[in-house]
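Supplementary notes (optional reading)

For those who missed the lab, this is the record we used. Protein: Radical SAM protein. Length: 309 residues.
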Amino acid sequence: MPGLLDMILGYDCNLWCDYCTIGPALRGRALSTAHALASLREGRAQGLDALSITGGEPTIRPDLLAIVRAGRALGFADIKVQSNGLMYAHGDNLARLLAAGATRLHVSVHTHRADRYEELVRRTGTYAAMVGGLERAVASGAPLVVDLIVKRDTMADLPAAIEWLAGHGVRAVDLWYVSLTDANADNVASLPRMTEALPFIAEALARGRARAMTLRSLHVPRCLLGQDHPHAWDPGADRVVVVTPEATFALKDSRLAGRVKVPACTGCPFEQVCPGVRPDYLAAFGDGEIAATRGRPPSRGPTRLPIAR
C-alpha cells in the first residue's frame, strides 16, 4: 500500500525557536546513518513510495545527500526535505540537494517580519539568510511549501505574511497551530484560543485564494473553520509511518495530532474525516468553542492553569 515515510533524522538544529517542542535533552539524539538507510529499505519493503526528511534541521547533517541519494536509488518517487532554509542561502547547498534527488522543499519561515524573526528563532543574523534561502528555493523551480506558525504573537501578522510570501513567488503555504507539548508544554502564553486566531486565519486564507495560492490549515477543527473548512488538512489521514531516533509509529497516533473527540463531535457533518482535537488544546481551553458551533453546552473546561496575559 502506497504511503509516506516521515523520517526525523535527529533533533539538533541551527535555531532555537521560542515555541519549539524539542528541548535540550533531545538535541543530541539522532538516527545513525545506518539506521536511516535501514529505515529506507524497510519503508520500501512496506510499499511506501514517498519520503519526507525532517528534524530538527536536516540540512546540518553531513550525511543528508547520501540519504537522499539512497532514497532515490531505492525507488522513492517523491522526496521532500523540511528545512528552515538557512543553509540554502550558502554556496551550492540547495543545488546539490536537488541534484541528489530531492523533489520537494518545505521551508519554515515562522514569521515574515524582520523585527520579529530573530527574536522568535533566538539567533541573530539569520533573517537575511532565511530570506536568501527562500528566494533560492523559489528560483529553483522545485515544488515548495512554506510553513507559518500560528501562535499568540504571530497570528495577527498572518494576512500580511501571505502578501509578503506571494510577493516572493511562493505559491503554497501551510498554517501550523502551535502545540503545548514537550519543551513547549509550559509556554501556555504562546497558545491562543482558536476563536481569537480564526479572524486572522480567515483573512490569510482569503488573501491566499485571491492570489491563486494553495493554503492549508493544520490542527484547527473543520467545524471552527466554517466556510473555510476545505482548507483543513490532516496529514495523518493518509498512510504515514514516522521514524524517530526513539520509535516508529503511525502519524495518526502522534501526540501532535488531534486525537480526542468531544461530545459535540457526535453527529457533526465532519465527524468521519476530522481527527478530533489535540489533548493539549483541550487541557488549556476545554471544548466550549467546539460545543458552541454545534449549539451544545460544553462538556469540559480547562484542566491546566489559565494563560497569562
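If you only remember one thing from this example: Strands lie at 4-8, 50-54, 78-83, 104-110, 144-150, 172-177, 214-218, 240-243, 248-250.
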